[in-house]
From TrEMBL:
UniProt-listed Gene3D superfamilies: ATP synthase, F0 complex, subunit A (1.20.120.220)
Membrane spanning stretches: 40-59, 95-120, 126-145, 165-183, 189-210, 217-236
Organism, scientific name: Actinomadura montaniterrae
Database matches in HAMAP family: ATP_synth_a_bact (MF_01393)
A cellular-component GO term for this protein: proton-transporting ATP synthase complex
PROSITE patterns in UniProt: ATPASE_A
UniProt protein name: ATP synthase subunit a
Function according to Swiss-Prot or TrEMBL: Key component of the proton channel; it plays a direct role in the translocation of protons across the membrane.
Record's signal peptide: none
Superkingdom of source: Bacteria
Family: Belongs to the ATPase A chain family.
SUPFAM superfamilies documented for this protein: F1F0 ATP synthase subunit A
Topological type in the membrane: Multi-pass membrane protein
Amino acid sequence: MNALTVLASSGGDEFQAPGPEIFDFPPLFSGGPAWLTKPVLFAVVGSLLICAFFWTAFAKPKLVPRGAQNLGEVGYMFVRDQIARPFLGKNTERWMPLLMSLFFLIWFWNIFSVIPIIQFPIASHIAFPIVLAIFVYCLKVYLGLRHQGAKYFTNMMPKGLPWPVYILLVPIEYLSTFIIAPFTHAVRLFANMFAGHMILAFFSLVGFWFIFEKPTVAGFGVGVVGVIVTILMTALELLIQFLQAFLFALLAAMYIQSGLEADH
């Protein structure tokens, strides 16, 4: 970082690496509510786009799919075969609307980070992953109590172990199931989107600063490297955005199944 600062020095100005402030947004308009910000706006836009796409795809399905219906069916089969069916089995079709919504909503929210003008992954604001994770967690506990009754709290324990083992195992299992699992479900998505956006912002700023803002002979090569790394990181980020949506929906399917049936 010190080397970059020295190379960026020009006319008393210094290169300033982006920090957490790039995740802070003012209200959309002067005097507006503090919560009405760019991330909230595009979270709603992403939700509406998902609704519009699948309405277009399946409102009037054809025997031979074309256009939006064709894409929609490909997405449906991917979520069904790769996310829902491995965990839910015979319960797959019942939970497909929820899992489809989670996967595509999170994926769209993530992709916003590489779309011009928006350039911000919605899930990098911790509030959005937390809301989704809490919803899945509450659904999991509700299904567990409904389908397994009070035994839900004992069914998660392996049977046949010596009783002294349970003294250590019970608090660990309950802590993992009811606190750590929903926490990591949200933080995994948030942390990856936060870190990815920060890295992209840093290298893109390096390229812009050294090539356009404060060009120097010594700094031009650094700027070129920044541009190249930005391109490569953008490609990697697109993959990570997809994988994080996939993992979030996959864990949701696993948690739902754990509520429907006791683990054996």
